[in-house]
Amino acid sequence: MGKWVKEHGLLLANIALFLIFFGGMIISGAQSYSEDQLAHGEPGVTVIEYLGTGQFLEATFENWESEFLQMGMYVILTVFLFQKGSSESKPVDDDAPQNEDPRDAKVKDNTPWPVKRGGMVLKLYEHSLSILFLLLFLASMALHAVGGVEEYNEEQATHGQPEVTFLGYLVTSRFWFESFQNWQSEFLAVAVLVGASVYLREKGSPESKPVAEPHYETGS
Questions:
Q1: Structural domain of residue 172, as residue ranges?
Q2: How many CB atoms are closer than 10 A to CB 119?
Q3: In this structure, is residue 219 part of a structural domain?
Q4: Which end of the chain is more exposed for a tag (fewer CB within 10 A), N or C?
């Protein structure tokens, strides 16, 4: 068990942190939502009831959407683009193992099944990481809109304004403001990581080059 935990520690730690912060978001969100409801003469909600509100759906998936967009785009951009000196980039002038054609690889017992299968299965597998992030992004964006339109219409009703349909909400400035305000911050963070990893180091991290390595040595 201890060996398994060590081998999967990075994933387990991130899942644990996600659950802690997600739980904190739900509890504080329910309290904030209830306070707003009471201020408008409406009943508050329990934590469980809060999970069914448009505000919860909108707040949750608005953020997930931007994360999946960022990671998916980063996976794709690093296929074609380079940053000299960055640990986040493939070498500029040298061949990288990521570019090797799996069809030329020697098949072993532990070779992934799609590589052994070949054909369309392999073609999809070659791009399965970006496909996953694309699907997660689209699903999150749709759920962001589902929660957003519910919350938007509640506010519209409170102010005596007409409600909008799901498609109508997609063309509101509010929906796109909610999206863009998250998207821009994600790509700013990536740009800082890509640029800073040229000159700065974190000993022991695979996201950093070795501490003594020259600034313009690219990749790992």
A1: 52-93+101-199
A2: 8
A3: no
A4: N
- Domain membership flag for residue 122: yes
Please classify residue 215 by burial: count the beta carbons closer than 10 Å to its beta carbon, then call 0-12 exposed, 13-18 middle and 19+ buried: middle
Query: Cβ(194)–Cβ(64) under 8 Å?
Result: no
Residue 150 CB contacts under 8 Å (≥ 6 apart), including other chains: 53, 54, 57, 58
- Classify residue 78: in a domain, yes or no: yes
Residues 65, 197 contacting (CB under 8 angstroms)? no
Alpha helices in the chain (DSSP H): 2-7, 9-39, 47-50, 54-80, 113-117, 119-126, 128-158, 166-170, 173-199
Per the structure, how many domains does the chain have?
A: 1
Q: What pLDDT, in 10s, does the model give residues 129-138?
A: 999 999 999 9
For residue 204, what is the DSSP state?
A: T
Q: Which amino acid is at 204?
A: G
Judge whether 27 and 47 are in contact, CB under 8 Å: yes
Share of the chain above pLDDT 70, in %: 99
Domain annotation covers residue 45: no
Q: Which two structure tokens, joined as six digits, stand for 7?
A: 């081998």
* Average pLDDT for 78-106: 87
pLDDT, tens digit (0-9, with 9 covering 90-100), for 31-58: 999 999 998 888 999 999 999 999 999 9
Q: What is the DSSP track for 44-92?
A: ---HHHHTTSHHHHHHHHHHHHHHHHHHHHHHHHHHH---TT-TTS--S
